[in-house]
Amino acid sequence: MKEDYAKKLKEYGKDIIFSAHASHYINLNANEEEKIENSIRRIIKTAKVLNNCGKNLVFHPGYYLKRSKEVTYNRIKSNIQRILDKLESLNLNVMLRPETTGKPSQFGDIDETLKLCFELDILPCIDFSHIYARSRGVINDYNSFYKILEKVEDVLGKNGIKDMHIHLSGIEYGKGGERRHLPLKESKFNYKDVLKALKDFNASGTVICESPLLEEDAVLLMRCYNEL
């Protein structure tokens, strides 16, 4: 999308909250410096477009490769800080939202994501479907989802709960975590308990449906939530 089109979106969609998902070709922990620089450029490019119509910029930070979790964390944190400095210098008013990821090979479990956001003063994108897939189906009940919300509030305070950005979809997983997104009714992901936990916790913000049946499942989520 070009910046001119983004301006038109804001003009004609005044009652719509727009967000953006940066390119999936991002690894802020890459071995090659060129790949890191390209990753940073892709996020900045997305920010320039989004600045014309919305605020929340979601991205997958990267992969561990053969590095330890600690080394990966520090490298990714340093590179996100570079992005934040660039956004400030360009006067781009967007919120970077690192997303919880669906594969154990990817940086982005709930704890390191929240720690990263706290230390950089940004906010996360909580993808409950990814969390479910990353755990290979273990995290899939009301109490588990509620505990995640408690973690968000413990680390990020009330703002972390009152300004949430959430992804939901049916999902298939294997030994390596996430495989592919599915329609909600074709997956064992317990989206109804996610919605109930959000309602009971009095969370607010934006929920993005990432189902292959986008419109149908978005309506399903809205109806389920409103019936709680």
TrEMBL record:
MF annotations from Gene Ontology: DNA binding; DNA-(apurinic or apyrimidinic site) endonuclease activity; phosphoric diester hydrolase activity; zinc ion binding
GO biological process, one term: base-excision repair
Occurrences of domain Xylose isomerase-like TIM barrel (ranges): 3-213
SMART domains: AP2Ec (SM00518)
Pfam families the UniProt entry points to: AP_endonuc_2
PANTHER family linked to this entry: APURINIC-APYRIMIDINIC ENDONUCLEASE, ENDONUCLEASE IV ENDODEOXYRIBONUCLEASE IV
Stated name of the protein: Xylose isomerase-like TIM barrel domain-containing protein
